[in-house]
Amino acid sequence: MQSELTADIEPIRFVGQTDGTLELLDQTRLPVELTVIRCSDVETVWEAIKKLRVRGAPAIGIAAAYGVVVGLQTVGDEDAAAFWKRLDEVTDYLAGSRPTAVNLFWALDRMKRVAHQLRDAGQSIAEIRTALVAEAKTIHAEDRDTCRAIGRHGADELKGAANFLTHCNAGGLATAEYGTALAVFFTLQDDGKDLHVFVDETRPLLQGARLTAWELAQRKIRATLICDSMAAQVMREGRVDAIVTGADRIAANGDSANKIGTYSLAVLAKAHGIPFYIAAPISTFDMAIDSGDEIPIEERASEEITHGFGKQTAPEGIGVYNPAFDVTPAELIQGIITERGVISPVTTEMVAKMFAAE
Amino acid sequence: MQSELTADIEPIRFVGQTDGTLELLDQTRLPVELTVIRCSDVETVWEAIKKLRVRGAPAIGIAAAYGVVVGLQTVGDEDAAAFWKRLDEVTDYLAGSRPTAVNLFWALDRMKRVAHQLRDAGQSIAEIRTALVAEAKTIHAEDRDTCRAIGRHGADELKGAANFLTHCNAGGLATAEYGTALAVFFTLQDDGKDLHVFVDETRPLLQGARLTAWELAQRKIRATLICDSMAAQVMREGRVDAIVTGADRIAANGDSANKIGTYSLAVLAKAHGIPFYIAAPISTFDMAIDSGDEIPIEERASEEITHGFGKQTAPEGIGVYNPAFDVTPAELIQGIITERGVISPVTTEMVAKMFAAE
């Protein structure tokens, strides 16, 4: 069930209440086609997560929470045993869609916990069902608020800048609405600022070209796509006031793992005297690891480089190194923009202070 | 007329004498297919240059010189007027194949000059025809010698290094046999050194992935393909002792224009304490320009980035910046490896000294 979206694009939208439908923007079709998947059964949600039609840790968690609501629609309110059996079925099933996605398990656990608490409190199946819709909407709203707060703090920090560069996609497609790095740009725009953003295409999977360029164009922010190797040149030309990227995991000392190529940008930024920022929610911090040295670098399939988009562009059997991430050391980061404020300078002490704040 | 090449690959080969045939390795088919174009008429040579089946300034000059020989085969030795008319026809025709290729005009002029000198000296058409084959072979041999000498000087300079990184394609495919940057690696291998080379894929046109990776694999040099954005990461991992690239144009002070991404590598190399070298023949120096500031940066079509794999990967109408080259300032270059020796430190005085040497 797919159709054209015309205006007011939201990557994740739940329409209705307990009998509602989850609508997901199919990110695998972007930027060439704008297709919405209407999920009125849990299998469609599962497939969308599995096939990366919805991607980004927060977005996956939100989709899974709504997926629970949709999955429970196959059983009525009158048969409690069937309802509880179905809840286990649905959450187990969705948990198998992307076995390494932490936000997925977190959201499913949260939905189950709410259901069990209300059962223990003697509420009816109908009441529990209503509460689950509310809980999914709360997860969605919390993420929206987090992104908005990151955007607000970032825009305040960077109100003197107008020319930006970003890498990969830390935008609304990966989260609810505003994203993390892109939230800074969206908020500056809301503040009436005329800004320009260079977008690294982000090889090998081109999230910058496919997703970030699309999001910026969608919001009519002036954007220029470049190859990753051109970032140094635009810095040298004096066309970048600040660099902002997202992060996948941040150590207790502020060392930040993000899409491969981020470290390169941070080194180049320093050489050109340009401040480099990370924008990420507090949930990205892994306080159990002291520094980035403890973050393992995932290597991905060589075909992502040798067969970009289905066409062979390198000789058969050539050796390939394809690290998915790199780690930018804290000393290269001017500030980490969180929903609680900006951590700057980036030190173990300052991270601990922000982490402890509410 | 195409067939499989099996062993002992030479990108440009002339088989026979005045009635000979030019064989060109079709670089547009690499690395997936190994196809040789047999040129027994000048139209096939013209098409090969035009369609980039043969590319790289020296290689184009060599192909054009042999193209003159092939083109003259349509007229016999008995009709002098027809011969001279045909010589003009053929050289004008070939000159139109790539109107911006300086080596092309240089080689064609050199062939015509030899013919006219011998005519003035009273030689017969048959003798002139034989001399033209010899002249084309001399152009070819001179370039081979230049590349070999660059390789020798580079291998002496870098004999303490084993782990390299290179960008784009400065190899045998662009020249006769050994190339420039790759000549250093080939010569180190000839010296019995066990070396490893990281190859930047070199977006947008992927010359590293398509050509350099292929050339190194062909010679069984251990090579690992990476995306351009991964170069900083392999430097940080301590896996690069030196970086060597080619150059397209070098100013009198040593500032070097080369494929976009080269400047980025030079900045990253400095930050990691890794020496960065340029390998290029003396003919690459443009002594008429004092510094790199005077080198205009060519911008190429946006489709190279937005439709890079024959597939649209960026939103319709997005702004694109696609500089073909960047300029690496002399102070970031440890040495420029030429056929006459290594210029180091890279200063206006040292460049002038090497330029004046024989």
Walk me through the structure:
2 copies of one chain form a homodimer. With 358 residues, chain A is an alpha/beta fold. The first copy, chain A, folds into 2 domains: 12-144, Four Helix Bundle (Hemerythrin (Met), subunit A) (Up-down Bundle), CATH 1.20.120.420; 153-356, Translation initiation factor eif-2b, domain 2 (Rossmann fold). In chain A, 40% of the residues lie in helices and 17% in strands. The first copy, chain A, is built from 11 helices and 16 strands. Chain A has helices spanning 42-50, 57-71, 80-95, 102-120, 125-157, 181-190, 207-218, 231-236, 262-271, 303-306, 348-356, and strands spanning 2-4, 12-15, 21-25, 35-39, 163-166, 196-200, 222-226, 242-245, 249-251, 256-259, 276-279, 285-286, 319-320, 325-328, 335-338, 341-343. The first copy, chain A, has a 7-stranded mixed sheet with strand order 7-6-5-8-11-15-16. The radius of gyration of chain A is 21 Å and the shape is globular. Mean pLDDT of chain A is 93; it is low at 1-7. At the A-B interface, α7, β7, α8, α9 and β13 of A face α7, β7, α8, α9 and β13 of B. β7 of chain A pairs parallel with β13 of chain B. Chains A, B: Pathway: Amino-acid biosynthesis; L-methionine biosynthesis via salvage pathway; L-methionine from S-methyl-5-thio-alpha-D-ribose 1-phosphate: step 1/6. Chains A, B: The record marks 168 as: Transition state stabilizer.
Question: Oligomeric state of the chains?
Answer: homodimer
Please outline the major beta sheet of chain A: 7 strands, mixed
Helix and strand content put the structural class of chain A at alpha/beta
Helix segment tally of chain A: 11
Binding site for substrate (chains A, B): 55-57, 98, 207, 258-259
Site (Transition state stabilizer) (chains A, B): 168
Function (chains A, B): Catalyzes the interconversion of methylthioribose-1-phosphate (MTR-1-P) into methylthioribulose-1-phosphate (MTRu-1-P).
Pathway (chains A, B): Amino-acid biosynthesis; L-methionine biosynthesis via salvage pathway; L-methionine from S-methyl-5-thio-alpha-D-ribose 1-phosphate: step 1/6
